[in-house]
Amino acid sequence: MTADESPDTAAQTHEVVVVGGGPGGLASALYTTRLNHDTALVDRGGGRAAMMLDTHNVIGVTEETSGGEFLQTAKQQLDHYGTELYRDTVTDIEATGEASPRFVVETDGQTLHADAVVLSTGFNDIRPDPPLPRTGRGLHWCLHCDAYMFRDEPVYVMGHDEGAAHVAMIMLNFTDEVDLLLRGEEPDWSEETDELVRAHPIDIVSTDIDGMFKDPEDSSWLGGFEFEDGTSREYRGGFAMYGSDYNADLAEGLGCERNDDGTIVVDEDGLTSVEGVYAVGDITPGNNQIPIAMGEGAKAGIAIHKSLRTYPKALSELSAEGDVDADTTSTASADD
Fold it and tell me: How far apart are CA 108 and CA 157, in angstroms?
C-alpha cells in the first residue's frame, strides 16, 4: 500500500513497524524490507527534513533537491521493495507481553501488530517570537548544515543560553561579522561563558527586534532586522537557538529511558531500554544530520534482522527438530 492510500480498518500484522518518515526511519525500513522482513512505515507527514528548501551534506544528492523531493524519492524506493507505507498518525504503542506479536501499534486509522518497533519521531525546533524570515532563507536551525553558506557574510545567532553563545563563537570560523541577538532577554549562560563570549569579537545586541526587511536583490531572503532602539542591521541569515521539543510521547508510554536533554537512551545499534524497541534520528543523542540519521537507521535495521531472523540455528535446536541426525550433532559437538 502506498502512502497516499487510506488504511484498512482490519488489524495488520508486520514483523517491523517504523514510526516516522524522516531519513532515519526511512533507512531502517529500507534495510529491514531488503533483509526480507515484512515492514510497515507509518508517517504522518511533515518533519524537519520536509521543511528543507535545499539538501546539503548528502553525498549523491544534488543541492537543489528539496526535502520533500528527497523524502518522496525514498518512499518510492521503499514502495518498490515492498514496504507497506501508511499516511497515518500513531497514537499509542503497547507491549503485549507475548513472544509474537510483541507490540500493538494503534493509529488514527487502524491497529498494527509487530515484533519490533523503530521510533523515528524526531523533534520540533522551538521557534522564537516573530518577526522571523522564512526557514532556509535567512532563518536556519543547523550550523553543520548551513554555516557554509554564510562564509564572509554578516550573520546573527538568536538566543540567550549556553548553546547560543557557543554557536556565535563557532560562527567566527566562517565570518568575522557575528551578532548575538538576545531579543530583550537576560543572558542565561554561566559567568565563565559570559566572560568568554564577551572576549570574542562578537556584538551582543540586547534590544528586541521590531521588524525585518528583505534582501533588495533577492526578496525571498532576509535583508536584516530593525530593532526597538531604532537601529537596523543587515544580515545574510542566521541561527535560532531556543532548544528542541522532542516527540517522545510514544517512547514515554513504552517506558523507554530518556536522557536529561529529552533524547532517548539507545545503544550502538539504536536499541532502547525496552527490548524490541529501537530509536533513530533526531530523537536520539548526537548531531542532527541526514547522513548520521540514515546510518543509525541502517544499523538499527541490521540489528533488527539479527534479532528476528530464523537461521542460522544451533545444532541442538536443529537436532531437536529432527533436521539433523544424532551422529552429525555428536561429531560437531566433539569438534566444538
Answer: 39
